[in-house]
Amino acid sequence: MANYWVIGGTYQDTGFDSPIGEETKVGPFGTFEDAEKEWSKLAWQSVDDANSRYRVERLDEYWVVGGEYVDTSFESPVGGSEERHGPFATFEQAEKEWSKLAWQHVDDCNYRYRVVEG
């Protein structure tokens, strides 16, 4: 069964990269249409706020996210964005890719990868 979620909230700016507090995550919904109804409701509640945004995401797939970072705080990726590998149908498949990438960079402390859902 598909797991659709509505994710979003208010962000620092219209780049929508840095949420103010935690992002709102509503769901799961069994169909895209049901998630879209909730998305519409939340989007219309914040229609006058340029820094608010909501999106529908399907979270029954896994990605390996990460790469090289400016320093070991792992907050600023080199080049401005993280690598995304996937999607993978199972956590185990994503974990296998994560392991491969992590071992390729095991001697460089500025690299980090993680498995994320969605």
Automatic annotation (TrEMBL):
Gene3D superfamilies: Uncharacterised protein PF13773, DUF4170 (3.30.70.2400). This is DUF4170 domain-containing protein.
